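Re: folding output
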Amino acid sequence: MAPPPGRERGGNAPTDVHSGAPSDIVLLPLRGQVIFPYIRGSFEIPKKTFEDICDYLERTEATSIGTIAAKPTKKGSSSELYEVGTMCRLISHAAV
């Protein structure tokens, strides 16, 4: 029997099922919002984060970022991230 897609035989370690995905990517954790594949959406981020991402994208000529939802936390504790996120192709960006 063949292993399920994205899994190595005899193990639980994920393999690269998206060979076209970049190996170096901006990963943006989002609180209170989940971005789903193939759905156009928007989100707000701090201006400094926006500027840093824009600088990186221009420097590397990248057109995509990764988004991942942060798990809800109790007040004062550090946030944890979910294991699965969404690769997003940027259509446009603007500082507000």
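--- second protein (sequence, then structure) ---
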Amino acid sequence: MEKTQKITQYRERLDKTLASPNLTNKEALKLLVKKQLIRSSENEIGGCNENVIEEKTAEVSNLLDMLRSACIVDDKGLTTCETTSHPEWKLKHDNEQFRVMYREGIKALPFIHYLLKAT
């Protein structure tokens, strides 16, 4: 029972972090990405340009959106997010060690995406 409470706490912390202004505001996210790119490219002569920052910010934003769409799950294993641009995640397996979720891919492709969240 204690492990279940810890898992619930970790998941709530993740949900709270994903909903923070630094990760939901596009300009704040762009600034975070820019700082990381500058820090990681200090040894390079050219540094990073605005196009790279825009591209990486879009990638990070898309990843965060996918994580947000997978976070809030009701009793039936369906997401309760109202504003997600991604298909809904369905719960396949959930225990103390990990959670496996899946969703259908793009309509033109026969793929299914899986998400494994380990604790």
